[in-house]
Design brief:
The chain is mainly beta. Helix content is 11%, strand content 37%. The protein has 3 helices and 12 strands, in the order βββββαβαββββαββ. The chain binds flavin mononucleotide.
């Protein structure tokens, strides 16, 4: 029988096994209007209502931009955008604050805030920064109130169509930390207990 192994907490544990996460691109602008994108997998809804949060660090431009402008966008990327998402984590050029690779990204403007989305994603959230909680070690939790949200028609759930077919036609990207990914075409209905309450 397989043994259960105790992990050494003197190092972060998250490299020692795989877990499933989404992958989103957080879009911000600095005070000069220079746009930035960064991939985040530690990202999720903050509860059942329209709040969103992700883990960042004060040394990242994303964090500094949100402190300065108080807004950010979230683009949920498709499996076809894996490479672009990864390139958004490219290091900055010396003597240049910018990630030059971002100039190659096709983007479009948010409707309510001064920020951009990555073209061809499937969910687009516009967020007003809400609470920022620092000191999870070097990391911080950045949360936002969603003030506008759009979904590409091909990923929108409707009562007329089957959910399994929707995922099959518009597959989802799963980020498997550390540094693997999977494309999800196939899914099953989750077996909920009778009379479950949220
Ligand atoms: C697949 C992937 C997932 C990542 N997830 C996170 C994350 O959840 N939180 C985080 O702080 N950094 C994460 N990073 C690292 C940042 O995206 C990266 O350091 C980025 O360049 C920071 O950009 P910025 O300085 O423009 O904010 C991730 C990188 C990759 C490649």
């Amino acid at each position: 029988m397989a043994q259960i192994i105790k992990l050494d907490l003197s190092l972060p544990i998250w490299q020692r096994f795989f877990s499933v996460a989404p992958l989103v691109l957080i879009g911000t602008r600095d005070e000069r209007g220079q746009l930035d994108f960064a991939p985040k997998h530690m990202a999720m809804p903050m509860g059942w209502e329209n709040y969103f949060g992700f883990v960042c660090t004060p040394s990242h431009k994303t964090y500094q931009n949100i402190i300065d402008t108080e807004v950010f966008t979230v683009t949920y990327v498709r499996p076809t955008q894996l490479l672009l998402s990864s390139l958004a984590a490219s290091p900055r050029c010396e003597n240049d604050e910018n990630k030059t690779i971002l100039e190659r990204f096709d983007t479009f403007s948010a409707s309510e805030i001064e920020a951009e989305f990555l073209q061809d994603g499937y969910v687009f959230l516009e967020c007003q920064s809400y609470q920022i909680i620092d000191n999870f070690g070097e990391n911080s939790l950045i949360t936002g109130k969603i003030i506008a949200a759009h979904v590409d028609e091909d990923a929108l759930r409707t009562s007329e169509q089957d959910d399994a077919e929707l995922i099959n036609r518009s597959p989802l990207l799963a980020y498997l930390h550390p540094y693997r990914f999977s494309t999800i075409h196939q899914s099953n209905l989750f077996p909920l207990p009778a009379n479950m309450k949220k």
